[in-house]
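Write out this protein's structure.
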Amino acid sequence: MVSKELSTLETVQNEMIKIQNENWKVIDEQFETFSNNIHRLRDCTQVLYSRQQINFNLDSISSLLALAYTNVKSYRSALYAFRMNLLTAIPTILKRQLPMSLVSKESLNLILETIAMEQAMEPDRLSLAIPLEAILSYYESQLLKDAISTPEGLLLTLSMPLASSQTVYTVYRAHSIPMPQPEEGVAIRWKTEADYI
């Protein structure tokens, strides 16, 4: 009975060795296949990386095209706004007034401040005849001397009234007169900055 069990054990052991050898053989074959095909995996990795770069470049190109389209649209709307400003400025220019649609308040302030600073350095020390802070509307309405159309655009010649310490001014007294309105018992009275102007 012991010999029968030993013989059975030996048979089982032989079968296990046979199965292990077959498994090792399969593993060796698969490892050899993997070793032979590893260059293909590298090629696949490189192709995948190249496609990712192409996708990234396509995204960059599409975002740049979108930005260019936005810039063209904004440039077109800016040209349209300039054209409309120019058309609305023509009647103002014909009246010899400075068109505020073309020359902004900030630009006019900068021009007047530049003149005031330049005149402060001159030996005769001229200054703006009308204080800038007090009456900017004068400069808007009485400043334009001439307007010439050139290939580059409009050339506006501005006339700046300057005064020296010897300049004599005419002083006027302001009288605020009530202005009657259509409604009974109602009138408008202007508020002046000072009694004398």
